[in-house]
Amino acid sequence: MKKEELLKLLRNPAKYHKEEKRAHNKEEAAAEKAFAVHKVQDKLLLGVGIGVVGLVAVTLLVMMSAKNRAENLTAALDPEQIKGLSVAETEFNPNVGVTYIQVQEGQDRNVAVSNLGSTLPIISRFNYRSFTPKNYEIIGAAPWALTTNFSSNLADPELMRYLLSNDTMIKAFLAREDVAPLLEDPQLLLAFTNDRVAMEEFFDSDTVKSVLANEKMLRSVAGSRFMSYLLISKAVKYFRDRPEEAAAVIAANPYLRELQQNPNVRIAVQENPYLKKIAPILLGAAGSAQQPGKKEVSPTAAKRNKKK
After folding, report:
1. Domain total in the chain
2. 103 and 70: one domain?
3. Whole-angstrom Cα distance, residue 125 to residue 117?
């Protein structure tokens, strides 16, 4: 102990011990404060470290997710993913289990889209994997829904053949109140072909014209499961069994005569397993429907001339 401190202790022991205790307390407080500062710094460093590691992990997760999405998108757009899924059987016969719906005359032939859903599903290579049975049902049941899907996929005949192979969509279409009676009764089907307004509305559609002008698309439609269902229906089978009557119906209808001369249609009819045997009767010779020396004007050409 130093001399000065010893004198202080001898002169006033109580005061000396009190001052010594106060100094000791200050040193402890300073030490605790320094420890607390280091402890906070350690926590901050630990938090920063965890944050950096978390940021790296999230970045890697986002990168991997983007990579997976890119791979999934590439797979979804790969034509091989769809090709071959919708090939129709050579002798496909869906008669088993098919129920024909009888519709009384006077019923409304239109179907309210609002009753089927507020959004019309449009199939694409981006979303076809996520389509639900309800989506396919709406496409089959809603008026012009199938045509709208065609108009959105005119460059993708394989995707449309995939859509036309879906039984839910097909059965919803066949059950429509404006379709079922036509496929049940040959006379109603004949009357429909004589309905000039209905023929004009259908064949003047830009989408229908585009399909008829596209050989690959037309062959996809003609060879589809959907077309097989139509061809084995009662009304169509009646005319298949009587090809001469069918040829007479074609000859009497300017729109069907124009269709008969379409080279893409002729190829599709000749390739179809249900029609190829009667194709020579249905198609006849190209231009045979015209009278010698008289040029037949198609409905489309007649409209163009009228506009001029």
Report:
1. 2
2. no
3. 22
Residue 95 half-sphere exposure, CB side, CA atoms within 13 Å? Answer: 7
196-203 LR contacts (CB < 8 Å, sep 24+)? 199/253, 199/255, 200/255, 200/299, 203/255, 203/258, 203/259, 203/299, 203/300
Q: Is the pLDDT of residue 247 over 90?
A: yes
Q: Are residues 53 and 111 in the same domain?
A: no
Q: Are residues 27 and 134 in the same domain?
A: no
132 with 215, same domain: the answer is: yes
Of 26, 51, 77, the residue that ends a domain is 77
Pair 44, 112 in one domain: no
pLDDT 10s digits, 170-200:
999 999 998 999 999 999 999 999 988 888 9
Q: How many residues does the chain have?
A: 308
Are 68 and 197 found together in one domain? no
Q: Which domain holds residue 134?
A: 91-307
Tokens of 40: 């906070």
Which residue is associated with the tokens 């599709």? 268
pLDDT for the residue numbered 37:
52
Amino acid at residue number 49:
G
pLDDT > 90 in the chain, percent = 44
Are 115 and 193 within one domain? yes
Q: Residue for token digits 């205790």?
A: 21
pTM: 0.59
Q: Is residue 154 part of a domain?
A: yes
Its sign, for the CA torsion 283, 284, 285, 287, is negative
DSSP string, 12-59: -HHHHHHHHHHHHHHHHHHHHHHHHHHHHHHHHHHHHHHHHHHHHHHH
178-198 b/e (C-beta count within 10 Å ≥ 16 → b): ebbbbbbbbeebbebbeeeee
